[in-house]
Amino acid sequence: MRQAVKWIVLFGILTASSGCWDNKDINHRSLPVVMGIGDAAGDYEVFLQIPEPVDSKMRVKIVSEKDKTITKAVDKISENLETQVDLLHLKLILIHSRCAERGLDNLFDFFMRVRDISPKALVVISDEELGSFFRNVQRSMKPTGTNLNDFFEKNAGWNPQIALTRIWQVYRSVHSFTRDVAVPIVKSGKSTLIEHMGSGVIRNGKLVGRIDPDETLLFNTFTGQSGQGKIEVLNRSSVMIDQVRVHRRSGIIGGVPWMNVRMDITVNLLELRQGTTIEEVKKELAELLDRRFERMFARVQAERSDIFALGQHFRNLLPRDRLREWRDRDYPRLKVDFKTYVVIEDYGHVKAN
Amino acid sequence: MARSLHVLLVYVVTHLGLIFFMYPEDIIASADEGHWVPILTGFAFHFAFLWIYMKGLSRGGGKDLTSLYLELGKVAAALLLLPVFVYFLMVNIITIRSYSEIITIVFLSNTPLWAIMLLLFLIPAWMASLGIRTIFRATFLVAAVCLPLVLFIFVSSFQNVDWRYVYPLLDKHYTFWNRISFYKSFFAYAGSFLFLGFVQPYFSYRIRTVLWTAVGILPLFLFSVYVPLLTFGESTASTFFFPYVVTLDMIQINWLMFERITVFFLMSLIIFVMLFVSLVLWQSSQIVGRFWPKAKTNWIIGGLFVVIFAGCLTVRSWNEVERLFIWNTWIRWYVLIVVPLTVYALGRRAERDAGGDRYAAGR
Amino acid sequence: MRCRDPPSVSYKKSGQGKNWNQITGKDAARMESLLEELKRKLGSDADWYCENDELSGEPVTLLGLGSLIDVFETKESIRKYLTSAPGRERPENRFLGFSEEARTAEEAIEAILSGKLLVFRARTGECWIAEPVAKPLMRQIGTPNIENVVPGPVAAFTEDIRSNIGIARQYLQSGNLRVEMKAIGAAHRIDVAVLYVEGRADTVFLGKLNERLQEGKNGDVSTLQGLIRVLGFPMRSIVSRLQSTELPAEAVGALKKGRVVLFVDRMPYALVLPTQLWDLFALESDLNFPRPIMYALRALRLIGALITILLPALYVALVAVNPEALRIQLALSVAQSREGVPYPALLETLLLLLIIELILEGSIRLPKSVGPTITMVGGIVLGQAVVTAKLVSNLLIIILAATTIANSAIAGFQNSYTIRSLKYVTLLLAAVFGVLGIFAGFLLICAYFASQHTYGVSYVQLRFAKDELPHG
């Protein structure tokens, strides 16, 4: 009898307590997918794009609030919604360029500290005011709720011209001595959902410069994310990148760091203008890429931001205290010798001369 | 391997639970570069004393630790075992408190701490009351399901490493022996080799197998530190409390239907830690039981449960946990060094007394 | 005289034949009172058979229970026996070839109740026990009821213990097969047979088993619970230490592995001891498949067991406590499916589990004619109406259907009940603690299994690990 009482009491406690700790069921939570952070006279203006199941369809809701800290802003939003806001499923963080220029280290410290926000979320910068961006996007969006995210999803709408940077990579670059990142810049589009404007160069958490989509393609190629990017050559011909191999050699001569980079690129021919030979295409492509790299590198070197992570190759050549000042001391003096070798492999169905 | 299967599994499982949480942070804080040196140093230390301990036990003829000490007389044995007993109590308090804190931080921010601690302690206490054979067999069952999961996720944590962060390989000025965090890292070693001295009447094992297993988990020690270092770089990784856990959050596996596989990895480790806690609790109850033979085992375990749980409740914040950690470090020296040495000496004496007969009869 | 006996069964009954003495008056009086006693106790029963007859010129009275004896056939065979062997040398202590005698009223009643024919010799007052032609009350050896076997023999055990022993002997023709019979029970006795292969079975284990049977020889073993009590197993354990199987192939396979098989009279299955956790996944009939397929089947059963224990708990944990572990698309569709459900996930799951358990239990009780209708109604009610009425989410129905199917993949009818009840442990813990609760529940279940043992043989014994030392 005593045994039975003991079990009944235990069971009663267990059933009573399962609702006790504010565990909200999944349909009582809002799971925003995109968070926008804008600048409103020094405060943060936080936008949340929340997909909502209504009847058997999905609707998208945009809410926003302003406050000095992000958590308070999110809390205010949660206050006014009938469900609890959970940042667990955030996939995309959209930051206004003014915030980015001011400095992102506090923001990313917050993102990494808080367990809710997944460090795998993508970071994107917007030039346009976030209010109007979200309004435009909502008007033209399909009601599945994850469209904006699909733009950057590798197995959905991603293109190799778009840089892919996640929160943890930005955080790493804030603290790292030898690495910086490039973050895509978008604005809302007229006939498409959004328009890709190129990438922003982030140095130690601050937006310091921009590169255009073609240069971003080169950047992605360099870091191994070339996908199947398409390059336009000689005004009317184009090729598609198949495979890329980058060989790097680095060293220090007379206190000056140098690096020899050789990129072997295998492409497939797509469009060929009448009257152009294959050899011309190959030569022109190699020169095009070399020139593009030199221009881009000169620009980022002037900004002192090492987005190609070239400093990584000097980790075994420089002592740690010098590495600490890589960006200011040695990086501006770095000489890079960049050469591209092109092989055209696949001509498609039509012969070429 | 079949001859030491249970002991092997318990050894691996209890170490796994301890390695991946706090060990990386301590090692990363103890050196700026070339972290493999503190890792290997600590490991060599542990390996040497493990060998001494097991040799002493086998020469002592299959008797367990308490019996060996009791040969010196009850008072001497009590004095020698008292630090060990206190160490066990502290280890349990620290483990349960800190892992409950980790769980609160990582998953369940809404559940109160005492409830998690209760869960984390009640189950191991029940297992300890069922006996050592139950603990070992349950380890086998749990390991059969959870070890493949843990190893799979461990392998996929290499997804984002950049091997160049290994450089520089050597630090010019090593100061790790001056830093307290190096000594704190011994938590991962010292907690779980003493059980080898308590299980001899129940499960046999071969010394060689255990030593090879110890070498086998060395890569886990190495990579639990290096995976965060290689992914983030030292300057970033040193900003985290639990670097390995954060690294797991980065893993992207597109073909699984789960999002944060961190959860499953950590949960398996928590289960392993629960097995560890039950093992330590059982050892403590064995020590008490030898000095107080009249008491029933279940009552001893109940009493220890109350004491340890009360201890957990009085620790209020993470800082106090850290302080307990540091205090425990001193007792850990005793456990790590004095116990194996005394066991070795006693074992040799027993061997000489038995006339050179290596495997004394009786068990 | 023995007619149509099952082969090679030996009886050890009390009261062997004694030397033929002169009948004293006291003996004769005793015999008379024996007859009176019998008539008093059983004479008023409707199936009491008592007839005066003559055998070899001697007046005898034939006594027995007409519901157990085929009287006509018995008398025919007696006459045939007598006419076919005239004038043979009869040994002193026998009468007409009967060799057993009932001395006391208890022995006589016991013999009659077990279906024997008593031949009461009026002149000397002796009461001889004869094996008659029994009424065909036994079932034919048929196919198993609760176990299905795909390739492999389909004979099944029946209720009669002697037939079962005979079937076992047919499947295992070995001189080392030992059969020991005990009669257990005070008010009414039930035969229990212990079978083992000498040299394979563990003698310590057998010793403990026999000890228990001896101690508990007054227990009631007409149900398995009674047998469990007699054998001294803990009554509160949900792990069944007696694995019941209707298939002779399984029982004999267990015997060959060194286990002990019990037969209980009137129970149409063999009870195998000791049980192991691996029995949930490995069947003897798996060996009739090629080896890779056998491994695949066993892996499938293992996955089925894991799904049963973990899946409902996973649903509750991921929906209520830890939704960050789901992919966003899945999370959104789950949220959509739960739209409008008025109660928390745990209650929803428990409700639907209750309905499914009721259906499972009810489908056993239903007669074959009504069964399909109820199943259809249950399916429609559960499948369609309950979702449309927004009482539960449709994802949950899929999950619970998968759980029920996975549960049935486990070998052993009683084992599936064990696993079915264990899934509630993980479910409740998951509702409170989320994914941590699932793993903690799994640990609890593993620890529970690890703590079960049969006379010292653990439930989770690893045959290939040789590192365990017997208890000092």
UniProtKB/TrEMBL annotation, chain A:
Q: Which InterPro entries match?
A: GerAC_N (IPR057336), Spore_GerAC-like (IPR008844), Spore_GerAC-like_C (IPR046953), Spore_GerAC_C_sf (IPR038501)
Q: Which GO terms describe its biological process?
A: spore germination
Q: Report whether Signal shows up as a keyword of the record.
A: yes
- Residues in Spore germination protein N-terminal domain copies: 22-187
List the keywords (alphabetical): Germination, Lipoprotein, Membrane, Palmitate, Signal
Q: Which domain of life is it from?
A: Bacteria
**Which subcellular locations apply to this protein?**
Membrane
Which membrane topology describes this protein?
Lipid-anchor
**Spore germination GerAC-like C-terminal domain ranges (all copies):** 197-348
In terms of Gene3D superfamilies, this protein maps to: Nutrient germinant receptor protein C, domain 3
Taken from the UniProt entry, a GO cellular component term is:
membrane
Q: In which broad location class does this protein mainly occur, judging by the first location in its UniProt entry? A: membrane
Protein family = Belongs to the GerABKC lipoprotein family.
Record-linked PANTHER family = SPORE GERMINATION PROTEIN B3
User: What is the protein's name according to its record?
Assistant: Ger(X)C family spore germination protein
Q: What organism is recorded for this protein?
A: Cohnella xylanilytica
UniProtKB/TrEMBL annotation, chain B:
Could you give one GO CC term from the UniProt record? membrane
Specify the superkingdom.
Bacteria
Kindly list the places in or outside the cell where this protein is found, as annotated in its UniProt entry: Membrane
Membrane-related topology note? Multi-pass membrane protein
Report the principal subcellular site. membrane
Transmembrane domains' residue ranges: 7-23, 35-54, 75-96, 102-123, 135-156, 176-198, 210-233, 253-277, 298-318, 330-347
Any single biological process term in GO? spore germination
InterPro entries given for it? Spore_GerAB
Any idea which UniProt keywords this protein has? Germination, Membrane, Transmembrane, Transmembrane helix, Transport
Family statement? Belongs to the amino acid-polyamine-organocation (APC) superfamily. Spore germination protein (SGP) (TC 2.A.3.9) family.
The name this protein goes by in its record: GerAB/ArcD/ProY family transporter
